[in-house]
Design brief:
The protein is of the alpha/beta class. The chain folds into two domains: 6-123, 3-Layer(aba) Sandwich (Rossmann fold); 129-200, Winged helix-like DNA-binding domain superfamily/Winged helix DNA-binding domain (Arc Repressor Mutant, subunit A, Orthogonal Bundle), CATH 1.10.10. It has ten helices and five strands; from the N terminus they run βαβαβαβαβαααααα. It has a five-stranded parallel sheet with strand order 2-1-3-4-5, sandwiched between helices. Helix 7 (145-155) crosses helix 10 and helix 8 packs across helix 9. The two termini are 33 Å apart.
């Protein structure tokens, strides 16, 4: 990639670091790999143009703790969080912590590259952000009243069972509405859906 754009990969699993580095280099993306959050923090002064990809579960300092630390240090680069143990509540926590995206392992190369491209585009500023908000609002308008209730439950981290109890319907019915919501919102993942909801409610 041009303009010195660098992806910093943080994962304690050497095989994962090597795999991500190979995939990104093959797409002409410069990569710097780090074996831990502490390793990345030692090079924080070099985080000037690019993004960070970090695993959630790492010894010493987790990915979400790293997100919080980078925020404290004033590092504003987009962060993509990876996990093999994802749940909706964690996706909500990660998104509210300010990550750009959230990918569940295993993921394919296309999903990763799409997430990187989307994060890079958002780096260009807020020019397209309002247009994206308008687009998302238009998709939400297509949801039925019940689908909107399920949508709200999903993005608050409710499980199918807890959403069913809250809405007075069966878990299986929640699953059906959930699938409809994902399709109508054109969400490729639960994290994508959470990101859409948070984008409509920007922090002040």
């Amino acid at each position: 990639m041009s303009d010195n754009f660098v992806v910093h990969v943080v994962d304690d699993d050497e095989a994962v670091r090597e795999s991500l580095t190979f995939t990104l280099n093959a797409s002409d993306i410069d990569v710097v790999a780090h074996a831990s959050a502490f390793d990345l923090l030692e090079h924080v002064s070099s985080l000037t143009n690019g993004l960070v990809i970090t695993d959630v579960r790492m010894p010493g300092m987790t990915g979400l703790e790293l997100v919080a630390r980078l925020k404290q240090l004033g590092v504003s680069l987009p962060i993509i969080v990876l996990t093999g143990h994802a749940d909706v509540a964690m996706a909500v926590e990660a998104m509210k912590a300010g990550v750009a995206d959230f990918l569940e392992k295993p993921f394919d190369d296309a999903a990763l590259l799409t997430a990187i491209d989307a994060a890079r585009q958002r780096l260009q500023g807020d020019a397209g952000r309002q247009a994206e908000r308008n687009d998302i609002a238009g998709r939400i308008a297509l949801l039925t009243a019940r689908e909107k209730e399920v949508f709200e439950a999903i993005v608050e981290g409710e499980s199918n069972k807890s959403a069913a109890l809250k809405l007075g319907i069966s878990p299986r019915t929640v699953e059906i509405y959930r699938a409809n919501v994902m399709e109508k919102m054109r969400a490729r993942s639960l994290s994508d859906l959470v990101r859409m909801a948070l984008l409509l409610k920007p922090t002040t």
